[in-house]
Write a structure and sequence with these properties.
- The protein is of the alpha+beta class and about 375 residues long.
- The chain has two domains: about 1-40 and about 180-375, Naphthalene 1,2-dioxygenase Alpha Subunit, Chain A, domain 1 (Alpha-Beta Complex), CATH 3.90.380.10; about 45-155, 3-layer Sandwich (Rieske Iron-sulfur Protein).
- About 25% of the residues lie in helices and about 25% in strands.
- The chain has ten helices and 18 strands.
- It has helices at about 1-5, 20-25, 25-40, 160-165, 195-205, 210-215, 215-220, 310-315, 325-345, 360-375, and strands spanning about 15, 45, 55-60, 65-70, 75-80, 95-100, 100-105, 110-115, 120, 140-145, 150, 185-195, 240, 270-275, 280-285, 290-295, 300-310, 355.
- The strands form four sheets. The protein has a seven-stranded antiparallel β-sheet, with no helix packed on it. Strands 12-17-16-15-14-13 form a six-stranded antiparallel β-sheet. Strands 7-8-9 form a three-stranded antiparallel β-sheet, with no helix packed on it.
- The longest helix has 24 residues, at about 325-345.
- The radius of gyration is 22 Å and the shape is globular.
- The structure holds FE2/S2 (inorganic) cluster and fe (ii) ion.
- FE2/S2 (inorganic) cluster (FES) binds near residues 84, 87, 89 and 110.
C-alpha cells in the first residue's frame, strides 16, 4: 500500500530530485495548475460555521476565481461563481454578508434566489420569449467534512469528497475521534507569505529544518530534533510530545478541557496531517490548529491559520490569549521566513532542481501526487 511504502523506505530510499525551479516561479506553470488542480478538484476554503444561517454568504478566492458560498432556505450549502449571468458583473463584494432571499446584481438589478435561480429581470418584457430558467448563476460544487468547507469549480460532477480525501497518503477521515465538526473557530491569524504554495506545503511536510528553525518546537516534540516527522511506533502520523505534556505550548501544561472523543494515548501526542492540495491540520489533545493555503500567484500565498476549540471554551475565556495560539504563531512565523528565503533561491536561474534525502520523502511523494495531477510522468 502506498501509505506504508512512503513511510518505511529506510532500505530502498535513494536521493530524488525536487521539482524543477520553474514550478515555483513561472506564470505558465501557475496557469496550468489552475486548469489541472485549483479549478478542477476539491479545494478547502474555510469552515461550514462561517456561513451560519439561510441567506448568509461569504466569498472565497480560489486561485483567482471569486466564489460565493451561501445557505438556502433549507439551510443547505450552495455555491456559485461570483458572476451575474446577465452580462458577467461581479455580483457581490468580497467578504461576508447576509441577504434576505435574493442576490441582486448591482448593475441592472437582476435577482437570483439562494439556489442560484434567476427570479427577477426588471424591464425584460413578457413578449421577449425570455426564459429565466436558462440563466441561473454558474454553480460550484460544495461539500463539507469534519466541519471543513470544500468547493470544486469543475463543471462536471467531481468524485465524492470523501473518496477524494482518501485518495492521498494521508486523510482527514482518519481523525473523526477529534470531533472537529463540533469545534469552532476561536481565533484566526492570516499571513501573507511571499512564496509559492508548494514551498509552504513542502515546509509543512518535513522537519529537517526543525532543529535550526524551531528551537522551541523541538523541546515539545523530541523526535523533531532528528529531522523526522514520522514515528514508526504510532499510527495515523502521531508524534509523542515530551513526557507529561498534554498541550502544545512551551510548558506542555494544558488548562483547556480535553477533547471528548480522543483516546487516552492521544493525550500526550500531536497529530499533523496534510490534505492535498491546500489543507494542513494539527490536532492536539485540547485544541486544533490548521492552515488553509490560498495561492495568489506563483510567488504569493495567503495562509489562513485558524484555532479550533470546544464552543464552551470559547464562551468562557479569551482563547486568543492561550499559550497554544502564541506557540503556533511563533512556529508559523519561523516557517514563513524560511519559505520566503527558499522562494528567493529557487527563483534563481542557477536552481534547476534540488535533492531530497530520505527524511524529505514525504515531499517527494507530494511531488509525485502533484506530477500526477499535472499530467506528468512519475519519477518513481
Ligand atoms: S450584469 Fe447583472 S443585471 Fe446586468
Ligand atoms: Fe516548520
Amino acid at each position: 500500500m502506498l501509505e506504508q511504502r512512503i513511510r518505511d523506505e529506510r532500505q530502498t530510499w535513494r536521493p530524488r530530485p525536487t521539482l524543477p525551479g520553474r514550478d515555483y516561479r513561472d506564470e505558465a506553470v501557475w496557469e496550468e495548475e489552475k486548469e489541472r488542480i485549483w479549478h478542477a478538484t476539491w479545494v478547502c476554503v474555510g469552515r461550514a460555521e462561517e456561513i451560519a444561517a439561510p441567506g448568509d454568504y461569504r466569498t472565497y478566492d480560489v486561485a483567482g476565481e471569486s466564489v460565493i458560498v451561501t445557505r438556502n432556505a433549507e439551510g443547505e450549502l450552495r455555491a456559485f461563481f461570483n458572476v451575474c449571468s446577465h452580462r458577467g458583473t461581479r455580483l457581490v463584494d468580497e467578504g461576508a454578508g447576509s441577504v434576505r432571499k435574493v442576490f441582486r446584481c448591482p448593475y441592472h438589478a437582476w435577482t437570483f434566489d439562494l439556489n442560484g435561480r434567476l427570479v427577477g429581470t426588471p424591464n425584460v418584457e413578457q413578449d421577449e420569449l425570455f426564459d429565466r430558467a436558462n440563466y441561473p448563476l454558474h454553480p460550484v460544487h460544495v461539500a463539507t467534512y469534519a466541519g471543513f468547507l470544500f468547493v470544486c469549480l469543475a463543471p462536471e460532477e467531481p468524485m465524492p469528497l470523501v473518496d477524494f480525501l482518501d485518495s492521498g497518503a494521508e486523510s482527514l477521515t482518519a481523525y473523526d475521534r477529534f470531533g472537529m465538526a463540533d469545534l469552532r473557530i476561536g481565533h484566526r491569524i492570516v499571513y501573507e507569505v511571499k512564496a509559492n504554495w508548494k514551498i509552504v506545503v513542502e515546509n509543512y511536510n518535513e522537519c529537517l529544518h526543525c532543529p535550526t528553525i524551531h528551537p522551541e518546537l523541538v523541546q515539545v516534540v523530541p523526535l523533531f530534533r532528528f529531522g523526522e516527522v514520522w514515528d514508526e511506533e504510532i499510527p495515523d502520523d502521531g508524534l509523542q510530545m515530551v513526557e507529561g505534556a498534554t498541550s502544545f505550548n512551551p510548558t506542555g501544561r494544558s488548562t483547556l478541557p480535553r477533547l471528548p472523543g480522543i483516546r487516552d494515548e492521544d493525550v500526550n501526542r500531536y497529530y499533523g496531517m496534510y490534505q492535498f492540495p491546500n489543507l494542513a491540520v494539527d490536532m492536539h489533545p485540547d485544541a486544533v490548529q490548521y492552515y488553509i493555503l490560498v495561492p495568489r500567484g506563483p510567488a504569493h500565498t495567503t495562509v489562513i491559520s485558524d484555532y479550533l476549540f470546544l464552543p464552551e471554551t470559547i464562551a468562557e475565556r479569551d482563547v486568543s490569549k492561550e499559550p497554544f495560539v502564541d506557540f503556533w504563531d511563533l512556529i508559523s512565523r519561523q516557517d514563513w521566513e524560511v519559505c520566503e528565503r527558499a522562494q528567493l533561491g529557487v527563483s534563481s536561474r542557477a536552481y534547476a532542481a534540488g535533492v531530497y534525502p530520505r527524511k524529505d520523502r514525504f515531499l517527494f511523494w507530494f511531488n509525485e501526487q502533484y506530477r500526477a495531477w499535472m499530467g506528468r510522468e512519475p519519477i518513481g
